[in-house]
Structures are given as C-alpha cells and as structure tokens.
Design goal:
about 300 residues; globular
C-alpha cells in the first residue's frame, strides 16, 4: 500500500530520481538498491523514481526493471511512493513496461516523452494515453525536450490532463513562462525536474521536486519546500542560494556519473556505470568535492 497522498501532491513533495546500483562486475545490485532506497527515505524523501534516466534505464533489461521495482517496494513501499519509469520511444513497449511495473508493485508511473523519433503532438497524445490506459496506476508525464527532442506543448498537456490517471508532470523544459500557463490551465500537480529551478517553479505553482541532488541534500530540499509553502520565502531563498554550488557541481557532466561518484565518496551503494556511460575522471571528482563542500555536503 502506497503512503497517503492528495490530489495536490499525488506523489508527495520531495522525490529522488534514484540511481541503480550495480556490483563490481556490472550486475544489478538489489541489496545495494534496497540499502540506498532506505537511506533516501530515512533522509526525508516522500518517494523514489526507479528506472528513470538517472537509473540508467536505457541499459537495464525489462526483467531487471521489474526485479528492481519489487526490491524497492519491499524495502520502502510502506513509507514512500515507488514510481517506476516506463517511458520509451516505442508505445507498445511502454505499455508492456507499465503492466510489468504494476505487477511488480509500483505505486505510480513516470512516462518520458518518446525520444529520437520526434513524433508530432498527436503522436505524443496517443502515446501517453495508451500508457495511462495500460495500468491502473497514476501517471506522471516527463517533459524534457533537451533530451527527447520534442516538447509536450501546453495544448497537449491540457488534453492529457483530462485523463483520470494522468495526474502530474515532471518539468525539465526550462521555460517558466510556458510552465506557468500549463500549470494554470491543466491543473496537474507540477514537479520540478531541474534542480536549479526548484524554487522558481514553486513560485509559479509547482508542488515539489523530482531531484537528482536529493541523493545528497534531501533534508535541505524538504526544508526549502516546507519554508516556501509555509510562507517563509526568505528562508526558502536562503536555502536555494546555499544549494547553488551543489546544483552546479552535480551537473558539470552527466548527472548519473556525478551522482554515482558522490555516493561512492559518501560510502553509499552505487557501483560502476554501464556503457555508454563512463566514470568521472579524477579531475572531475576533485571538482565535485570542491562543489559539494561549498554547498555544505559532508563527505567521508
């Protein structure tokens, strides 16, 4: 049973897009994944995104995805929303992944815009609708045109919001003007998918975050959103400014790379990356240490 939620915050307020730990030989590390998930929920996450891009979903098999969902649900499913990434650029495959995630016990689905093949808006509408129809789980859209190549237009978001199971959007579009209009017109629960814009998106109606830096600073993110929602904008701004070096440092290169490097520095489960990802260089790790220290992150 998933934790309680409201229509305004269907997945809570603070979710981390979790890496997928691997063993030294590159196999799925389910024990490590459970330990990391427990650590993140203990730190204050309302939910975890599993099998997203930060979870290296392009390089994990369908069976590994299901095994990971089961393991995380077993570890923290009574305390946190476990949201499974099921988006691909193949609608049929995405619907199969949605059903598999439901069977594995997921509480919700994250569905990214189909990437590379650049479908038209009608194609996006049909894709997201088909995935939402495939399982009896709430759906969070994921709009990230910098990676997918295609934005979800405001008109399409408004159309999709009419579907009873499409309840939220993860916004990594980087366009506050369009976000403001889409929030106002769609009524979807809006989650920041770009850590640097966490506070600005709250100011135009977002309810929370799907964060990568949450691996390291969940208590600070929770304090930020709680300060903002209680009306203490000055405190929220101070936390935002304190976290700027972390936001910057974690995205100097690809976020999975820096996250796994940072987790290793903290002695938490992470393991190697699967190709085509590559480990951070020694120089990148030294810069990461400087950035994290500037943001107040304690390493081992």
């Amino acid at each position: 049973m998933a934790p309680t939620s409201t229509p305004q915050t269907p997945f809570g307020r603070v979710l981390t897009a979790m890496v997928t730990p691997f063993t030294a030989d590159g196999a799925l590390d389910l024990d490590g994944a459970q330990r990391l998930a427990t650590h993140l929920v203990d730190a204050g996450n309302d939910g975890l995104i599993i099998n997203g891009t930060t979870g290296e979903s392009p390089t994990t098999s369908d069976a590994e995805k299901s095994d990971l969902v089961r393991a995380i649900v077993d570890a923290v499913g009574d305390r946190a929303h476990v949201v499974a990434g099921v988006g691909t650029n193949d609608t049929h495959h995405s619907t199969e992944l949605a059903r598999a995630a439901e069977r594995a016990g997921a509480h919700g689905l994250l569905v990214v815009t189909p990437y590379y093949n650049k479908p038209p808006q009608e194609g996006l509408y049909r894709h997201f609708t088909a995935v939402a129809d495939a399982a009896e789980l709430p759906v969070m859209l994921y709009d990230i045109p910098g990676r997918s190549g295609v934005p979800i237009s405001t008109e399409t978001i408004v159309r999709l919001a009419e579907h009873p199971r499409i309840v939220a959007n993860k916004d990594a579009k980087g366009d506050l003007g369009r976000a403001g209009w889409a929030i106002a017109r769609s009524g979807l629960a809006w989650y920041s998918g770009d850590d640097m814009l966490n506070l600005p998106l709250l100011s135009i109606g977002a309810v929370g975050f799907v964060s990568v830096v949450g691996h390291l600073v969940t208590p600070e993110l929770r304090a930020l959103v709680e300060a903002y929602t209680s009306g203490d904008v000055q405190k929220a701004t101070e936390i935002h400014q304190k976290l700027l070096p972390v936001y910057t440092g974690m995205f100097r290169t690809q976020g999975v790379m820096t996250t796994k490097a940072a987790l290793a520095l903290k002695g938490l489960p992470a393991g190697p990356l699967r190709a085509p990802m590559a480990e951070c260089t020694p120089e990148e790790i030294e810069q990461l240490k400087i950035d994290l220290a500037a943001g107040g992150v304690q390493l081992q």
